[in-house]
Design brief:
The protein has eleven helices and 13 strands. It has 376 residues and is an alpha/beta fold.
């Protein structure tokens, strides 16, 4: 192992990771695995990256073509995204057309819903069956004492798991701003079924007053899908909120390099994570949900899903263009990280090096200013 490669590796994954975080060491064995895991990282496009575009005419088929044109492995699509063209509103002919497009272009599709309600789950299942989809994302939106919310989530997931086994589906529960990683892990451990696992979101732990990297390590045994993004923490009277920012920008406070590395390394023999969805959520805001002074059994408040406000200083055309530009930049930033991992690992285990990744083109950063105040 060269000292230079080890130093550069540690500096790369240390960014925003916190001084108290134990860093992995780039041994020959670690480098060999890292080279294998970065050979073909399953990056997916995500419909929320195009939040405003999908309000103003972008369709699920357009998103599939974006993934194909940018050499991504697949698409994570909420069944409500796309307005009149949304998957939930498609008739049989339209769903068949989308399915044929996915098969023609070789793009995988994962579907998402923002609920664990039985009726909504059945709607998602119907969409999945029509489109040949086998992977779903869900999260609950219950209210009440934490103990009762946990039991309600367990009951919901037990039902969904039963349906998944009947229909050969896999379901991943996202940690979505209210439950903490240990609470979700305990529910999944109780269910104990390989068809029910977790989707880890880079920033959602903040709203539950939990550091993302710590949450990642707690949920690690269950993580199958990931939402990749940039964000900064907002310090609020009752806890932490989050604001979405361009990933890798000076405003991004998340340990993106460390989280990508740790997620890539999950799985003893084969990669555990099957989809890294690039979910750039610039200007998304979600307030604090949990805090430092809550009782042993805190009340979980019901809240509608957070949204991304409109930047009124821009024309609609400019807003849509910036959204697409940020999406391209996020792809480049993550592929750049992968290229750095491969370069450093190859210095330590050069005999294991596979084919080089194609050169990454980096656009100059798009101008960005906060809608929600200065950096915390």
């Amino acid at each position: 192992m060269t000292e230079t490669a080890e130093i550069r590796f540690r500096e790369l994954i240390r960014v925003e990771a916190g001084a108290a975080t134990a860093l992995p060491t780039l041994t020959a064995a670690h480098a060999k695995t890292l080279l294998a895991r970065t050979e073909a990282v399953p990056f997916f496009a995500h419909s929320y990256t195009f939040y405003h575009n999908m309000i103003h005419g972008m369709t699920p088929a357009d998103l599939v073509r974006f993934a194909y044109e940018n050499d991504l492995h697949g698409v994570c699509l909420h069944i409500s995204d796309g307005e009149a063209a949304a998957v939930r509103k498609m008739d049989g002919k339209a769903r068949e057309g989308l399915r044929r497009l996915l098969e023609e272009l070789g793009i995988a599709l994962h579907l998402e819903i923002s609920s664990t309600d039985k009726a909504e789950v059945e709607t998602a299942i119907a969409c999945a069956q029509a489109l040949g989809v086998r992977n779903l994302r869900v999260y609950a939106r219950h209210e009440g004492p934490l103990s009762k919310v946990v039991e309600a989530v367990y009951a919901d997931l037990a039902y969904i798991c039963e349906r998944a086994n009947q229909l050969d589906l896999h379901v991943d529960y996202e940690q979505h701003e209210d439950l903490r990683a240990a609470e979700i892990a305990s529910i999944l451990a109780r269910i104990g079924d390989p068809r029910m696992n977790a989707l880890f979101d880079y920033s959602n732990s903040l709203n539950a007053y939990e550091e993302p990297l710590a949450a990642l390590h707690i949920l690690a045994p269950f993580i199958r899908q990931v939402h990749v993004k940039g964000a900064r923490k907002t310090i609020e009277p009752n806890g932490w909120g989050q604001i979405g920012v361009p990933q890798g920008s000076p405003e991004d406070e998340l340990p993106g390099a460390r989280m990508l590395h740790d997620l890539l390394m999950l799985g003893a023999k084969t990669p555990q994570v099957i989809a890294f969805a690039l979910e750039q959520e610039v200007d998304y805001y979600a307030p604090a949900f949990r805090g430092p002074r809550e009782p042993a059994d805190p009340m979980i408040q019901y809240r509608e899903p957070s949204e991304t406000p409109v930047d009124r200083s821009k024309s609609t055309a400019r807003l849509l263009s910036d959204e697409r530009r940020w999406a391209i930049q996020q792809i480049a930033w993550n592929r750049g990280l992968v290229a750095q991992f491969r370069e450093l690992a190859a210095q330590v285990a050069p005999a294991q090096r596979g084919g080089d990744l194609p050169a990454v083109t980096h656009l100059p950063p798009a101008p960005y200013r906060h809608l929600n105040g200065a950096r915390a």
